[in-house]
Amino acid sequence: MPENKTLHSRNEEIVTQFFDFVELHLQNLLNGKETEMFHIKEIAEKLFVSYGHLTNTVKLVTKHHPCYHYDYKIITLVNDLLLNTEKSASEIARILTFDPSNFVKFYKNLTGITPTEFRKNKILPKKLPIETKKYLR
Fold first, then answer.
1. CA angle, 20 then 23 then 29, to 5°
2. Angle at 107 between CA 89 and CA 112, to 5 degrees
3. End-to-end CA distance of the chain
4. HSE value, Cβ hemisphere, 13 Å, CA-based, for 22
5. Taking CA 36 as the corner, what is the angle to CA 60 and CA 108, rounded to the nearest 5 degrees?
6. How far apart are CA 64 and CA 60, in angstroms?
7. Distance, CA of 16 to CA of 92 (rounded, Å)
8. N or C: which end of the chain has fewer CB within 10 A?
């Protein structure tokens, strides 16, 4: 039984490290301390676990793929920037190392509206596409 508790604790530790890393990484992008958005595989390497182990562990503990959480965190950050700064969607895209046209597609795919529509209406649809999107990466 203690072995199962240790495994459970280690899984939670990996998930916590993943969330902490994503948070810090996005803040570093905003502050200009980093210049490129990491992929999940690169995050796994930084956490010293394999991509498969990170993916399986995050899915086991949270019921969602790491990409879901990463994308959700990006959207949350973008929404905050849209509501609380004068930065345009293109500026935000460049800060987060997106091509501006791809950024709008990314945002709309996950929220159902464009960044400009969100800024104007200050509200997201009740059911976000990200909540029903299948992450199979």
1. 135
2. 120
3. 33
4. 22
5. 65
6. 8
7. 26
8. N
Residue with tokens 């029903």: 132
Residue whose token pair is 């990409």: 67
One-letter-per-residue 3-state SS of 43-96: HHHHCCCCHHHHHHHHHHHHCCCHHHHHHHHHHHHHHHHHHHCCCCHHHHHHHC
Task: Give per-10-residue mean pLDDT for the chain (137 aa).
Answer: 64 96 97 95 97 96 94 94 95 94 92 92 75 57
Question: Side chain identity at 34, as an amino acid letter?
Answer: E
Q: What would be the CATH architecture of the domain defined by 2-132?
A: Orthogonal Bundle (1.10)
Q: pTM here?
A: 0.86
Q: Hey, how many other C-beta atoms are within 10 angstroms of the C-beta on 87?
A: 14
